[in-house]
Design a protein that fits this description.
The structure holds two protein chains of two kinds. Chain A starts with a strand and ends with a strand. Chain A is built from no helices and eleven strands. The relative contact order of chain A is 0.33. The mean pLDDT of chain A is 91. In chain A, the strands form two sheets. In chain A, strands 2, 4, 5, 6, 9, 10 and 11 form a seven-stranded mixed beta sheet that branches. Chain A has a four-stranded antiparallel beta sheet with strand order 1-3-8-7, with no helix packed on it. Chain A is mainly β. Chain B is an all-beta fold. Helices cover 0% and strands 57% of the residues of chain B. In chain B, a hairpin with a 5-residue loop joins strand 9 and strand 10. The chains are: A mainly beta, B mainly beta. The interface between A and B is medium-sized, with 21 and 25 residues.
């Protein structure tokens, strides 16, 4: 496996379900990110982890709960979601989260549909 | 507030040249990125500009004017595979990326 991988690629869940999204990066990076991408809207940064520590939480509802057990893995735990949470959830990584030139490498995303 | 503007959609012909504009208003500036995203796929890095001027990379070039808060991505010798969304993003004073909504580029034969 190379780059950034995400599982599952597609997920359909009810509003009362609990599910988790997984992201893994094989690039030796220290920073990992969760983004939400909705149609015709800018990417919304949700969470940032740098060296396993959460450094950003952009006013994300508590029904989204991130977990970063190590620098290579990132999870997004989902519970009691709303239909408006349906979107593409992208994971990204970079060498670290500070500094000017910090190219982010993205995973293919999880297409989430909340019924 | 912080804002990135780019056209929603553009259409161009195979073999031609297209310029995708991006204007920004952000709190601070630490560089501007362009990413390409094919439908259903991950965004991939195209270019980074932090100084004024033109950066050329093969068929793709990116230009930046910091005084005008403006950038463009120039694609030459368009190919059908260039049909994708092109995302402009600016790194602000907190080193956080502020993203535009993307420009969907449609290439016609």
């Amino acid at each position: 496996e190379t780059g950034v991988t995400q599982t599952p690629r597609h997920l359909v869940m009810g509003m009362t379900n609990k599910k988790s999204l997984k992201c893994e990066q094989h690039l030796g990076h220290n920073a990992m990110y969760w983004y939400k991408q909705s149609a015709k809207k800018p990417l919304e940064l949700m969470f940032v982890y740098n060296f396993k520590e959460q450094t950003e939480n952009n006013s994300v509802p508590s029904r989204f709960s991130p977990e970063c057990p190590n620098s290579s893995h990132l999870f997004l735990h989902l519970h009691t979601l709303q239909p408006e949470d349906s979107a593409l959830y992208l994971c990204a990584s970079s060498q670290d989260s500070g500094g000017a030139y910090n190219e982010q490498f993205f995973g293919p995303g999880t297409r989430l549909t909340v019924l | 507030g912080q804002n990135i503007d780019q056209p929603t959609e553009m259409t161009a012909t195979e073999g031609a040249i297209v310029q995708i504009n991006c204007t920004y208003q952000t709190s601070g500036f630490n560089g501007l990125f362009w990413y390409q995203q094919h439908a259903g796929e991950a965004p991939t890095f195209l270019s980074y500009n932090v100084l004024d001027g033109l950066e050329e990379k093969g068929r793709f070039s990116s230009f930046l004017s910091r005084s005008k808060g403006y950038s463009y991505l120039l694609l030459k010798e368009l190919q059908m595979k260039d049909s994708a969304s092109y995302l402009c993003a600016v790194m602000d004073s907190n080193y956080q990326l502020i993203w535009g909504a993307g420009t969907k580029l449609i290439i016609k034969p």
